[in-house]
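#onboarding

Welcome to the new folks! Below is a worked example of what a typical request in this channel looks like: someone posts a single protein sequence, and someone else replies with the predicted structure as tokens. Don't worry about understanding the tokens yet, we'll cover that in week two.

Example request:
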Amino acid sequence: MLTHDAALRWLARWDRQQEGYLPDREERFTALIDAVQALGRPDPVVIDLGCGPGSLSVRLLERLPRARVISVDADPLLIGLGRAAYPQLTFVSADLRTSGWTGLLGLDGPADAAVSTTALHWISESDLKGVYAELATVLRPGGLLLNGDHLDTDDATPALSRLEHAVHDLETERTFGADRPEDWRSWWDAIAADPDLAELNRERTTAGADHHGSESRLLSQHVGALREAGFTEVGTLWQRGNNRLLCAVRG
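Example response:
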């Protein structure tokens, strides 16, 4: 049986391993939530795309307790951990690559923002176009898509892209040195070895929720898909190295 306290311990470990790839992770969270707050609505409706166990969603609710945050992911294990750790969140099990996923959200009107962190790069460019096109149908005019991720520019500005990677790598080295947190694979190996998570692990295997590689790592892939979906303004709102917060405004 997965208890609340055990889930919180696993998610503290999750946050730590994520910081190993993103030493400025909390700063990016803050910038993203600042943008949602800047919409000027005390009770915004926000969709968290590829929410994982809810790390961003729970921070959004801490800042904006009257917000309605709908946390969407296809991974049964991460959703299971999130539900046990954060009962105040609303999780929806849905694959963003499957047409009609917005019908599962329980919306009774348009959303004010969609947010995501370190998730949408797993989706292929062709599927990404469908995700953004469907998303546009449930965002209000002027609503935002805020996507924090490592997005590269080597297809357009290779010299700048090399510098962006160098800035990120130097910051990581400064922050951690030889004392790097456990990596993604080690965290998942530990999860697989926990008997209390056996059922969720079986569900995850059945769902085929494991990820392999980065399918849409280029900034241009996301910008192009967003413009095609009808987002009229697309730009970087915050950046350090190749770690950026991409913002798009629905027309």
